[in-house]
Amino acid sequence: EHNILFIRGFMILFLSCITIRLNFCISSIPSSLKTLPLEGYINFDEVGHAARDFGNRYRYHPMAVVHPKSVSDIAVTIRHILQMGPRSQLTVAARGHGHSLHGQAQAHGGVVINMESLKVPEMQVYPGNSPYVDVSGGELWINILHASLQYGLAPKSWTDYLHLTVGGTLSNAGISGQAFRHGPQISNVQQLEIVTGKGEVLNCSLEQNGELFHSVLGGLGQFGIITRARISLEPAPAMVKWIRVLYADFTAFTRDQELLISAENAFDYIEGFVIINRTGLLNNWRSSFNPQDPVQASRFKSDGRTLFCLEMAKYYNPEDTDLANQEVEKHLSHLSYIPSTLFLTEVTYIDFLDRVHVSEVKLRSKGLWDVPHPWLNLFIPKSQIHNFAEVVFGNILTETSNGPILIYPVNKSKWDNRTSVVIPEEDIFYLVAFLASAVPSSNGSDGLEHILTQNKRIIEYSERGLIGVKQYLPHYNTQEEWQDHFGPKWEPFLQRKSRYDPLAILNPGQRIFQKAT
Ligand code: FAD
């Protein structure tokens, strides 16, 4: 009995020591971070902003936010956290413009690096035969557009919305209506500078550190922080002919979309969207557009049908207007849209590319921008798109869509299989994006719960009833689900993780790995 008492006493003493030591470690974390030799600064008080994102559903507060002034600030922070060892539980998340949907740029109790503070290198455009621009990983695409246009140049591949950072979109893929020709943004990068999860600062490209280069592109921020990118440019047009036509027949719609993405010089941008409107009243798909035939157009009634809008753009310069008109006419003549539904407008290249910002301004003024956004993005193989449309647009989303539904095909040949992004196996696959907004104080068909239930039905159907569907901007909660998502790419993904971020301290908000303890 004496021995048992002794052992128990010893155990209590031992556990108390561990607890005191742990508490000491945890409470000493902020003070040790405070002493980091940074050119920028670290903030422990104003951290609420870093716990928010566009999705507006997840809110994890970090312990601190680093505002880096140099790449070394980021490397120093990572190295410091590494030195604290696994027991500190501290993680690091790069935050671009915070336009993630599920807290992907957040770090619960960790350190968020506010990438927009990083202003080095100063943006520099290199004109010439193969023009490019060097930018900071925290640069917004809209700023890159303005800077490169000063040289008559522009990046080739875009996202629909430009107030996103280079590091944020390159960690995913970055796609829009130009992707069928140029591939996603990750196919248009020549070089990167990365701070890895080991705190090393490395340059990488196809020729140098190629494995790191491919890992980081589409790598969901798991291998390193992108601090600099070299982006390919092309001559920029001055103007854009922007065209919308409608289809009631989904087969004709996709046949024409696929025809256009395989044509050499037809259009420079091809997207499309679904109009679900049981009331028969057409929504604002044509506002700011002019009908080619106003009389016929005014007679067109949707009759409550689900319609499919094909959206095309042709770039041109004013001196080539006649040629552009002829080209447009020629390519439109091969399409089988409803003839009375041809709508056109001509806008500057900047206005075209920055088009979603106009909606942002309007929505902000109505208090409808900072609402929950239960978005769902899927890549659907071409062979599955008809079944998908039948079930999703025919059975699941029958009344309204609570926001735009984009649908457009891209060519797999423009994607590099060595990058980390996961896409379907077929030569052509579709992006289908359900971009719903849950308006405040609504619990009907536009309430958050209702939209989430619909999304769940769409995911369940797509993942169980169809073959080869992948989520874009993926979100999963368990490692098993991630493993399924990556499929044969899972093992290489794990190997890359252990090589570049062995303690798994980077970007925990993706919920793929837990920091090693
Ligand atoms: P954040 O949300 O801040 O970060 C995204 C992820 O990348 C996080 O995991 C973060 O930790 C990581 N990360 C951020 N910066 C870095 C870095 N420098 N190095 C390493 N990792 C980093 N996407 C498209 O492809 N096409 C579209 O047309 C499109 N349209 C959109 C329209 C709107 C209105 C919105 C809100 C989003 C849209 N997106 C689109 C999605 C967008 O590309 C992603 O949400 C992207 O992650 C947002 O970029 P961000 O700069 O805000 O990144």
Please count the beta strands (DSSP E, at least 2 residues each).
19
Question: Largest beta sheet, briefly?
Answer: 6 strands, antiparallel
Task: Output mean pLDDT.
Answer: 93
Unreliable segments (pLDDT under 50, ≥5 consecutive)?
A: 19-26
* Shape annotation: globular
CATH A-level architecture of the largest domain: 3-Layer(aba) Sandwich
Cofactor: FAD
Catalytic activity: N(6)-dimethylallyladenine + A + H2O = 3-methyl-2-butenal + adenine + AH2
Family: Belongs to the oxygen-dependent FAD-linked oxidoreductase family.
Protein name: cytokinin dehydrogenase
Task: Tell me what you see in this structure.
One of its GO terms (molecular function) is FAD binding. Keywords: FAD, Flavoprotein, Glycoprotein, Oxidoreductase, Signal. Its EC number is 1.5.99.12. It is a single chain. The protein has helices at 2-34, 71-83, 141-149, 166-170, 179-182, 210-216, 250-262, 294-299, 321-332, 349-353, 355-365, 385-396, 448-465, 479-486, 490-500; strands spanning 41-43, 64-67, 92-95, 111-114, 124-126, 132-136, 153-155, 189-196, 201-205, 224-235, 239-247, 269-275, 290-291, 307-316, 343-348, 376-381, 405-411, 428-434, 470-472. With 517 residues, it is α+β, with helices and mostly antiparallel strands. The protein folds into 2 domains: 36-236, Uridine Diphospho-n-acetylenolpyruvylglucosamine Reductase, domain 3 (2-Layer Sandwich), CATH 3.30.465; 239-472, Vanillyl-alcohol Oxidase, Chain A, domain 3 (3-Layer(aba) Sandwich). Strands 5, 6, 7, 8, 9 and 10 form a 6-stranded antiparallel beta sheet that branches. Strand 8 and strand 9 (201-205) form a beta hairpin. Helix 12 (385-396) packs antiparallel against helix 13. Residues 19-26 have low confidence and may be disordered. The protein binds flavin-adenine dinucleotide. Flavin-adenine dinucleotide (FAD) binds next to strand 3, helix 4 and strand 10.
